[in-house]
Design a protein that fits this description.
The structure holds three protein chains of three kinds.
Chain A: H1 4-21, H2 36-40, H3 71-74, E1 100-102, H4 103-114, E2 119-124, E3 127-131, E4 136-138, E5 151-153, E6 157-161, E7 165-173, E8 178-189, E9 193-198, E10 205-210, E11 213-224, H5 227-232, E12 236-238, E13 247-249
Chain B: H1 6-14, H2 24-29, H3 48-51, H4 58-75, H5 83-86, H6 88-96, H7 105-111, H8 126-147, H9 153-164, H10 166-175, H11 227-233, H12 253-272, H13 274-286, E1 296-298, H14 301-311, E2 317-325, E3 333-340, E4 343-350, H15 353-369
Chain C: E1 3-5, E2 23-30, H1 38-54, E3 59-64, E4 71-76, E5 81-85, H2 91-103, E6 116-117
Parallel strand pairs in C: 2-3
Antiparallel strand pairs in C: 2-4, 4-5
Helix pairs in contact in C: 1-2
The chains are: A alpha+beta, B mainly alpha, C alpha+beta.
Amino acid sequence: MFSRSVLRSLTSDLRLSAPSISTISLPQRACLHQTASLRNAQQQSQTQSSSLNPETPLSATPRAQESIPETSIHNIIPQTRDDIPLAKQPVAPTFTSPLEVTKSLMAQLPHLVGQTPHYVTAEIHARPFLLTAGDHIRLPFLMPKVKTGDILRFNRASALGSRDFTLKGSPHIDERLFECRVRVIGVESEPLRIKEKTKRRQRHTKQARSKHRYTTMRVMDVRVKSPEELLKEGAVVIEDAADSPQIEARS
Amino acid sequence: MKRLQLQRWSSTVLSPRARTVNRLHQHLYSASLRHQSTAAPLQSEPQDASIGTNFEDPEVMRQVRSAHKRKSQLQYPSPPVEAATNSAKLAALHARLYLPSRLPVQTLARTLVDASADPNADFNNESLATLGHDLLTYYTSEYLLCKYPRLPLTVIFAAMYAYVGPKTLAAMAKEWGVDLAAAPGGEVDPGYLQFRRVDPGTDVNAATDDVKTPRPYANAAKWRKTVTSKIFYDDEFGDPIKGASAPGEGVTAEQASATFVRALMGSVYLHAGRPAAKRFFEQHILSRSLNISDLFNFSQPARDLARLCARENFEKPVAKITSETGRLSRHPVFVVGIFSGQDQLGEGAGASLLEARERAALSALKGWYLYSPLNVRVPSSMEEDGASPWEPAHVDLGEVIT
Amino acid sequence: MPVKGLRTVTTAQNGVGAFIHQCKRLDFHYCKYGGSSRGMLAFLTQTLPNFARENPQIELRVAPRPGKHPVIKGQYVNGREKAICVRNLEPIDILKKAMILKDASGDKLKRTKKPVTSINESVRGIWSPYHGDLRGV
């Protein structure tokens, strides 16, 4: 055990220096969570968290620092992508062919783009969530490998629309047609639930406790790309086919 | 809680810095007599020299230094500059707001000192707040005018108030986790927002007599003030310009928090440049949600709509029942549409024909006023590097005047 | 005067533009002699510097509280406080508790049934019985 004075000095030192030491701070928030394991998991709804410090604009790059404690040498915080092992880097979306848009969709898309606001029915673990910009989501599960402040892009949507028009996917819309970004706000938990488990002819009751934790998110924007943007990104216009997605107007 | 410091009282009373000026430009010409160095302050009597202590002894020197430090802390009405680097609260606030690293914590500490706490313009946030206020109102007004070119002026005033009014800015400071100091002083942690509070029992809404407005006949009670004249004579929210508060007076927590947010905007602009300031504005102010259609308060929508149609050479608006139910029951519902020729301008439902007509006219007017062009650009977007050529923004005829 | 403006205040949507971390302060209390604080003492010396470095947005305070169990308290932007007792816990478990406090929003725990809460108006409008033609059955 320490002597009291040593501990005092230690703690006062900590109190003074803790926040100012904390400098190599945010760049490593980029912590690239969507790893290979997640890629293999059948849930693909949120692919690459567009990691790299969500606040790049006003980035909190380390401020002046006097001393780096020795502990930081042992677990180096990754600063660039090179510091991260290949298996843990985010998976870039790979597309074998350019986006194909039918002529009729190209003709109708300006109507959808021009009418704001938009909604999107994003699917996570095959569950639909109807989202508009600014919504607060509490996922029904704790999402692994995300940190608060991360920005994710939902890439699986079954419907995308405005007041009078809806683009329905069959079963999903190509992720290059829209952008839906969400930010992880934190982790919430439910109040403790106690369930009494009883068995027949027995006075003993068992108490099952559960207190689940859930990831909360905020939808940053829901945006439909305009035809010009699609063409700029290399979309190819093709003839209509029977099962090609269509924009439905409200009847 | 802060202890009362007798030395500080006496120093403020005796010091030549106690002045009665209040506006910024007046401060700029007054010489500052504040010395913030680790050296002994001017007022302190030369004590160590006579005693002749051993300057080699580190223990003695440490005590001397800490005594000086304490004395220098107590001497000034706001925390010394050196204290900013030692404040955990301040560093945490810097990181929490993702402020640019080019913005030093010392400046952040200065934005937290209100003019009521430290009347010295070199150490309070008044100059930064003036700059930040101008930036905030400029960015907001250009956004509103380009995004909604047809908004009536009164609604623009209300929207400006909603985006950058003191209430909103105070709410933002609270959501940023900025704590308020109980009372200002040099020994307070610089991470607290320091200001002198209003004395209890003061009527904060009392009309001040020394109104600094340039408006002629401002004191004539029954003189009509047109909305247009508010652009010239009043502030950006359509309120008459108030004279600055007297130097000895405190400010409310709301005013102090709003001044802090403005000062922070100004300091981001000064230290990190225009793009960072613009991003700061977009991320913290424009990202807040405001439903502009809730800001309208029409008194006679049907008459306004008729005037509008006459001005725009539309056909006269006609109200027609499109659907109804239970006319003879206790709860009838009428759905009335307003048509101009073949075009339906608006629709509304109500429990009586008049109510439904009013609502229909209301929705038609809101549909007109809330027109928003696609892909709007604001003039300040031309300041970015590699901006595409400017396309003129839509400028509307203006609101309907009856 | 044809139309008046009504004064309101914009509503905050944390995370849409800037993201403000909701936990603003963590207080670590320990006892120097108590056996239940042994893990806490190890945590304070070994893990806390790293934790502080990774979370610059949180103000950390370490204070002794002799004769009591060790406690972590979190102060939140909304003015509430959450406390977790960490007696007899290992440093790794204490770190988990600190992470819980760090990620929490500070609100009271609520049981919610709907995953999405929105302050926006319905995008497609509300169904009305007075519009549209009657459909054949």
